[in-house]
Design goal:
The complex is a heterodimer of chains A (337) and B (406). Chain A has 337 residues and is mainly alpha-helical. Chain A has a single domain (22-328), classed as ABC transporter involved in vitamin B12 uptake, BtuC (Orthogonal Bundle), CATH 1.10.3470. Chain A is built from 15 helices and two strands. Chain A has helices spanning 2-19, 22-40, 51-76, 84-100, 109-129, 135-154, 164-171, 179-197, 199-209, 211-216, 221-247, 259-268, 280-299, 304-321, 324-336, and strands spanning 173-174, 177-178. In chain A, β1 and β2 form a beta hairpin. The longest helix of chain A has 27 residues, at 221-247. The two termini of chain A are 19 Å apart. Chain B has helices spanning 2-23, 47-60, 65-68, 80-92, 109-117, 144-156, 172-185, 203-216, 229-239, 252-259, 261-265, 278-291, 353-358, and strands at residues 35-41, 69-75, 97-100, 121-125, 135-138, 160-166, 191-198, 222-225, 246-248, 270-273, 301-303, 308-310. In chain B, α4 (80-92) runs parallel beside α5. Chain B is globular. Chain B starts with a helix and ends in a 48-residue tail after the last helix. Classes of the chains: A mainly alpha (337), B alpha/beta (406). The A-B interface holds A 44-45, 47-48, 52-53, 56-57, 59-60, 96, 102, 147, 151, 155-161, 171, 243, 246-254, 257, 294-295, 298-299, 301, 304-305 and B 44-47, 49-51, 53-54, 169, 194-198, 200, 202-205, 207-209, 211-219, 231, 234, 238-239, 253, 331-332, 334-338, 357-359.
């Protein structure tokens, strides 16, 4: 009798453990790491760990969250988008030159600028989907073309200044909170709805897992392979618009610091670089983890080289901690217990 | 077997190419009677690099050079290897002169030497090379680091917590500036460097890095910055309504802020100094004077004077050029990242703000001769010379005096 109860409770446990999705575990784990890091940072500098540091992290991380969303969708379908820096620059340059340079009323040019970015993403997708160019070559080529076009058109010095809308987005307060924080909360919610709770998002997961099977199952595979590149390009363009509002102007290298972090945020967030797995909330956690790390590392009074080594090491440890095998082991331990 | 034959054929081709190259005559002017001048940039895409290139383009399109100079621009990226091969091609192509922003102070030396032997003039601007057959035109020896650091110390009364916003890690220019600055800061025990970060001479990176540093040290008293300084002001504004004394380079945004009473009210004081893009124009004009036989000058290190504009001296221009002592263009004329020291009424009277932004010449302008005197730069070992010694006067203050004692 007692033996039988034990068996029963054991199977019960297994089912419960299996019901918790791997993505949920990694998202929660990242959130915990973020909070712990924020708390520990007090020991490095007493001013850290305060609400003002959280504000700084949320504002500085907002750009990365936006680009990482697009990058995440592309990676979900098994691709990779290397054109993000160029598109950030394009978005920034278009918003300063078209609207900021004395056309404050031409607000309609802002969506047009985003559509232009989306069109570049569409071209990348055409190369990847129809011409079968490997995604990283295709997006790299688009990146070079777009960056060179921006250089040629601006002659190196982007004119104009930040459009009023960009300044309002980045520099005002809503309900006592800095507006970019409110924006990023809304953006994360919408992104989560799209990726995790819409049929569209499910199609992307399906394609990333097995494109051929999805096609047979009736998923519009071609359209769904194009979609992430367009969204990623538009997200990058929008991040450029945000950056313009944040720093009151565009520069041609404004996007350069976001390529690798955008990929890193997605991977640290628990997504598979091969596609088909991952969650947007994990990516958001990854983006903020990288940003928190940045603020803490800059407060450590060590030489630059050493600081970068520490930063790399912590990222590596975080990745190892979040590996799938570890979750499986936790599950098996729980099963045994 | 086939592989072996291919290899043989390839090496034969290499030898043939080398032989042709060696026998190509070094000609003074190309077939159509024009001087063939190359403008070799390492990278482009920031305001500084573009303005420096635009000034050269504008000068080459100004009479009489517009009829006698063929200017070819080559951008080779941040990799020294790419610039080496670009130089090689220019030498092969029969260049008369190469005006260049060199990406490395030593990696290009061997190629430059070869070019010199073929009669090519090399003029480096801003960054320098240690090869002695090249002319270096640079402000690097003019003491930006130590002078700006002393100005900041003076503003702070000799004590306070400061940030160092540096340039590109591992870059000799950044190192020279920082060494000069630390030479001063180290003399004042009351000065505490609480954060030091690399901002890549970029406004936006400076803003983000400064924001991070402010999270840990909201009570900072002053900022010593290299280019990108306008980003530091914006980070301070984002964090609260308090500005602090700071020194930085020559962006229009920074100069306009220094002159703005509202910003001064919030605590902004300081001085604008640093790297002038106008060096490229000076280098180009000097080279053309040598090529056209108007001047005789052996290869040397030439010092471009350090721009030095304290807040009280900032004056906003109304026209297209720096007249009546004005030294910054208003916000509706140039972007905040525009580097103000691109014009020089004395050395480059031919060009204006449109030349700097677009590379266009000023209508009706003609090239004016440079002053007779060419100032020699001090030795900076590993930066503009090899096997040389720095002068005893290194880090001597030239623009400012210490008003507070350690």
């Amino acid at each position: 009798m007692s033996n039988e109860t034990a068996t029963l409770s054991q199977t019960g446990d297994t089912r419960k453990a299996a019901r918790i999705k791997r993505e949920t575990v990694s998202t929660v784990a990242i959130a915990i790491i973020c909070v712990v890091l924020l708390y520990l940072s007090r020991f490095i500098s007493p001013a850290l760990g305060s609400w003002s540091q959280v504000e700084t992290v949320l504002i500085l991380g907002s750009f990365l969250v936006v680009v990482a969303f697009g990058q995440g969708l592309v990676i979900l379908t098994g691709g990779l988008d290397l054109s993000i820096p160029a598109l950030i620059t394009l978005g920034g340059v278009l918003s300063t030159t078209a609207v900021g340079a004395g056309n404050p009323d031409a607000w309609f040019l802002l969506p047009a600028a985003l559509l232009a970015c989306g069109f570049v993403g569409f071209l990348s997708a055409v190369g990847v989907v129809w011409l079968r160019v490997p995604p990283f070559i295709m997006t790299m080529a688009m990146s070079i073309i777009v960056a060179s076009a921006a250089l040629g058109i601006t002659k190196g010095t982007p004119r104009g200044y930040a459009p009023d809308a960009a300044v309002a987005l980045m520099k005002s307060h809503i309900l006592g909170l800095p507006s970019p924080i409110v924006f990023v909360i809304g953006f994360v919610f919408l992104g989560w709805l799209l990726q995790e709770r819409s049929p569209l998002g499910r199609y992307l997961y399906a394609i990333g897992t097995n494109a051929e099977a999805s096609r047979i199952a009736g998923v519009p595979v071609t359209a769904m392979q194009i979609f992430p590149y367009v969204i990623s390009a538009m997200c990058a363009g929008f991040a450029g618009f945000m950056l313009v509002g944040y720093s009151s102007g565009a520069t041609l290298r404004m996007g350069d610091d976001y390529l690798l972090p955008s990929i890193a945020a997605v991977v640290i967030g628990g997504s598979s670089i091969l596609g088909g797995q991952g969650s947007f909330l994990g990516t958001v956690g990854g983006a903020f983890l990288l940003t928190i790390l940045g603020t803490i590392i800059s407060a450590i009074g060590l030489e630059f080289g050493l600081r970068t080594i520490i930063e790399g090491t912590i990222i590596l440890i975080a990745l190892l901690l979040l590996r799938e095998e570890l979750f499986n082991r936790i599950r098996s331990i729980r099963r045994k217990a | 077997m086939l592989k072996h034959r291919l290899k043989l054929a390839a090496s034969a081709m290499v030898i043939a190419a080398a032989a042709f190259g060696a026998t190509a005559p070094a000609h003074a002017q190309s077939e159509d009677g024009k001087y063939k001048i190359y403008l070799s940039l390492s990278y482009s895409g920031n305001a500084w690099q573009s303005e420096a290139a635009n000034i050269v383009k504008a000068l080459a399109a100004t009479a009489p050079y517009k009829d006698s100079v063929e200017l070819i621009e080559v951008i080779s990226g941040t990799d020294p290897q790419a610039q080496i091969s670009a130089y090689e091609s220019m030498i092969e192509d029969g260049a008369d002169g190469i005006v260049s922003f060199p990406i490395s102070s030593s990696a290009l030396n061997r190629t430059i030497r070869r070019g010199c032997d073929e009669g090519v003039l090399f003029f480096m601007y801003d960054a320098t090379v240690t090869e002695s057959c090249a002319y270096n035109v640079s402000y690097l020896s003019s003491g930006f680091g130590e002078n700006s650091a002393q100005a900041l110390v003076n503003e702070l009364g000799g004590k306070g917590k400061i940030f160092l916003s540096r340039g590109v890690p591992g870059n000799s220019v950044d190192q020279r500036h920082t060494d000069g600055a630390m030479h001063i800061f180290n003399q004042y025990p009351g000065i505490e460097v609480v954060a030091e970060y690399y901002s890549y001479w970029d406004d936006r990176t400076t803003q983000q890095e400064t924001a991070k540093a402010l999270a840990a040290h909201p009570d900072v008293d002053g900022i010593w910055a290299q280019a990108g300084e306008y980003g530091a002001i914006q980070a301070l504004m984002d964090a609260g309504d308090r500005l602090v004394p700071m020194t930085g380079e020559n962006s229009a945004g920074f100069r306009l802020a220094l002159a703005d009473p509202a910003m001064q009210e919030k605590g902004l004081r300081g001085v604008s100094a640093g790297s002038p893009p106008a060096q490229s124009g000076y280098a180009f004009k000097l080279m053309m004077e040598i090529l056209t036989g108007k001047r005789e000058l052996e290869p040397m290190n030439i010092e471009y004077p350090l721009p030095w504009v304290p807040a009280a001296d900032v004056k906003v221009c109304e026209g297209d050029s720096y007249e009546n002592g004005c030294n910054v263009f208003p916000k509706d004329r140039v972007p905040s990242s525009f580097v103000s020291e691109v014009l020089n009424p004395e050395l480059l009277p031919e060009v204006n703000v449109e030349s700097a932004l677009n590379g266009t010449p000023v209508e009706g302008a003609t090239i004016q001769p440079l002053p007779e005197d060419v100032p020699e730069a001090a030795n900076l070992p590993g930066i503009n010379c090899d096997d040389c010694e720095a002068p005893a006067t290194l880090y001597e203050l030239t623009k400012v005096e210490a008003t507070v004692q350690p």
